[in-house]
Amino acid sequence: MKRIPFLIASSGLFLATGVFSWGAVPAIQTAAPAVAAPNFQSSVKPLVEGHCLDCHDETTHKAGLRLDNLPADFRTEKSAATWTHVFDKLIAGEMPPKKEKRPPQPLLTGAEQFLYLQLRAASLDHQVKQGRVAVRRLNATEFENTVRDLVGTPVALKDMLPEDNTTAGFDNVSAGLDLSATHFLRYQEAATKAVLSAIPVSPPIPFSEQHSGREISEKGSNFKQTLTKSCKLDGDALVIYSTLPRYGLCATPSVPTAGRYKITMSAGAVGAEGKPIPVGYMTVESSGRESPVLKEVHEIPAGPPKVIEFEIDLARRQQFVVNLLTTWDIRRFKKPIEEYTGPGLRVDWLKIEGPLDAFPPASYNQLFAGVPLKAHSVVKAEMAHTRLPNVDNRRADSWYADPLEPDSEHPKEDAERLIRSFLPRAFRRPVSADVQKHYADKVHAKLDDKASFLDAMLYGYKLILSSPDFLFLTDDPLSGATAQGDLTTPRLDDYQLAERLSYFLWSTMPDDELLAVARTGQLHQPTVLYAQVERMLNSPRAHAFTKNFAGQWLDLRKIDFTIPDPVLYSDFDQLLLWSMPRETESFFEEVLRKNLSLLSFVDSNWAMLNERLALLYGVPGVQGNDFRKVTLPPGSHRGGVMTQASILKVTADGTRTSPVLRGKWVLDRILGQPPTPPPPDIPAIEPDIRGATTIREQLDKHRHTPACATCHTHIDPPGFALENFDPIGNWRTSYRVTERTKAGVVELPRNTGRQAYYGPAVEQGGQTAEGKPFKDIDDYKKILLENKDQLARSLTQKLLIYATGADIQFADREVVEQIITRIRPRNYGFRDLVHEIVVSRIFLDK
After folding, report:
1. Considering its fold, how many domains does the chain have in total?
2. DSSP letter (8 states) at residue 103
3. 690 and 768 belong to one structural domain
4. Residue 731 per-residue DSSP state
5. 3-state secondary structure of 476
6. 299: Cβ–Cβ under 8 A, 6 or more apart, which residues?
């Protein structure tokens, strides 16, 4: 590869934790005086021998790094990774250490230039010949979503599959997606479940029941424990003043068959305040052994009861439940319940009817269109040529012992037709006649072995849904390789591009329109690609981008991992937990939808709030459960994602906050500068909640340990900037403790019989590793915003990793800088960033 001589001013090189900023480097000089080409012996070896071997030779090898025997090999993965580490440390000024004698600047600059050119050339050559990612399979989320789209039922499959590893922050990165015999077994089990979910168990069995509030209480014998305590009867109406426990619920009867049902109820909010109240629409198994599962949150208007209608999906033997999600507790009221004037829910009557699904359902037609349904016993008798049983269509529960199944009069013809139709959808591209024949022959062979039509088709569908063509994305660089095993071209074809685009923005297979555009061969055209990205971002399916990218980037998936201490944080409730991740998701989608600056994720003068979160944040004037954009009042200390309750919860343990945990989170997720993991012999810090020693005093001891000092200089500042926020998102000036103090009792909205006390004052403020002082999170956010490019660089890298399923490689660094250069004049618009990702070389190549 011909090298282009160039000069780079040493002051122009910039690195942020391993990210070489090409955008900060002066332009390449295409003309230069004729000089001897630099080489390792003249450019790097003098620096290593003169300034590195004292710490990194055979005897010392600090941090496990030896440079005395490191080969000048930039193409072998292991040695290239080590030289990349050396390069990054040189650029960051961390090698040699600041306390050591500094090497002459020309020597340092020459080594940096040589290493950069060699590492970039080796990385780019590998990408051109082999692609950035060797092979990439669907992760569990993508598998479930894709099968759901193919089959047409909301079947849950993810929990059946082995858990995916997280690599570089995401669970869709190829390097972490292993494959084993267990995977294939589970894929076949999941495929069986999915296919069977598309087949109706029985003909339509109409179900309709209506009960008054009184009848609901009479049918639940355990209401005796809640009536007159948390609920009461008013004529035939049931009035609920607190969340009902699972042993006495305001619920419909359980349904005999799975399907979509219509719920109608006459209900209204009561109470002296005359305000609407939030309620949860839930489902629960009729066995009563499991707690209700919250599906949706809605508001019930105040005033006379109104008729409310909606639809909900229920499994067999599930019940619909309506329950309060309260921030209050009637146990604080010591008088008879008849005198209570607080907020509550009045239910006059509750009705359920359905199932509403067409018969046969659309899901059946996606897999078995044109094939009649018969009871299993009938199919079995016909195959055995015995007397046909008499099937009663009104038999309800007995259908589950003798369910319907597809049975073709022309099995081979129907099997071939259905398999040939299914394959292009499953493989997400045209399928050759030979491949179609291969799978059709497999099904035919089963039929020849006297298998039933269902068993033969189930076998065929399982083969397809566990095949490499389904499980792996087709950006596999081994496809279309030369005799030497290199790519004929690194560029994705249109079908591969459609697939990558769809799994990036929708976490599922391309839809018909996207595949149709790919079929024309025009998807790579910039205007066509832009239009498709806009269409996809505007689709409801794009919520998967929020759930799966933002859910991992910001750790929203961990929202349920901890339960706040009920003594210290009795102001935590189910409605707040439900609201927390939805605020962050709504914020993310608002920034994306309006093309707002990605800097909004660090700070903004607005938030997406409902009444419950506004109460927590002290923002007045927000009523109702719907999220809306709210301008924050001066001094609110909110804005951006770091101060949102969801983030504050996932970066705490439920009882205490840790500046270390929060500091690491900010460095990694916001700044893109994750700290080095601590040595294995360093104990974790356990805050003293009794107040004998402060967290800052304990961290000071850590910082005096040489192995810890460097990292804590960077970790602690953002952690202390967030220390004013407790584990559920309250702003605080004092810690809460469980032991009595002179400062007194913390006033909480719930009287649980247990009390929390004001403890020591919160330790806030500090100074950054660069020596910039701050007093609170407001000051710290201003410091972060001084380096806008690094904030953009961090998010750009994370989007590229998630979008392509591969970690950032050395040759990718200049692409990252090119993207930042293009979005900088547009105030770092987030939607613009997504578009730039999609047209980048990294996204368009294998």
Report:
1. 5
2. P
3. yes
4. B
5. coil
6. 276, 277, 278, 279, 624, 625, 626
821 vs 397: which has the higher pLDDT: 821
Q: Which residue has tokens 């399907």?
A: 259
314 and 422 together in one domain = no
80-89 long-range contacts, CB within 8 A, separation 24+:
80/119, 80/122, 80/123, 80/810, 83/115, 83/118, 83/119, 84/18, 84/119, 84/810, 86/115, 87/20, 87/112, 87/115, 87/116, 87/119, 88/15, 88/17, 88/18, 88/20
Residues 6+ apart with CB under 8 A from 525: none
What is the arithmetic mean of pLDDT over 192-215?
95
Question: In 3-state terms, the chain is what percent helix, strand and coil (to 5)?
Answer: 45, 15, 45
Is the pTM higher than 0.85? The answer reads yes
Omega of the bond leading into 566 within 30 degrees of 0 (cis):
no
d(CA 87, CA 813): 13
Please tell me which residue, 555 or 24, carries the higher pLDDT value: 555
644-700 pLDDT, tens digit each: 999 999 999 988 898 999 999 999 999 999 987 766 656 555 554 444 456 666 666
**629 and 769 belong to one structural domain:** yes
Q: Please tell me whether residues 347 and 249 are part of one structural domain.
A: yes
Residues recorded for the chain = 846
What pLDDT score does 62 carry? 83
End residue of a domain, out of 464, 486, 508: 486
Does 546 reside within a domain?
no
More confident: 743 or 582:
582
Q: Is residue 92 located within the same domain as residue 179?
A: no
Residue 567: its pLDDT value, please?
A: 87
Does 167 lie in the same domain as 225?
A: no
Helices (H) and strands (E) in the chain, counts: 29, 17
Residues 614, 631: one domain?
yes
Q: Which domain holds residue 58?
A: 10-130
Sequence-ordered list of residues with C-beta below 8 angstroms from that of 351, at least 6 positions apart, any chain = 208, 209, 210, 211, 252, 263, 264, 265
Q: What angle do CA 390, 394, 395 make, to 5 degrees?
A: 70
Provide the pLDDT for residue 325.
86
More confident position, 690 or 433: 433
295 and 381 Cβ atoms separated by less than 8 Å: no
Nearest to 254 by CA among 346, 130, 352, 121: 352
CA angle 732, 738, 742 (to 5 degrees): 75
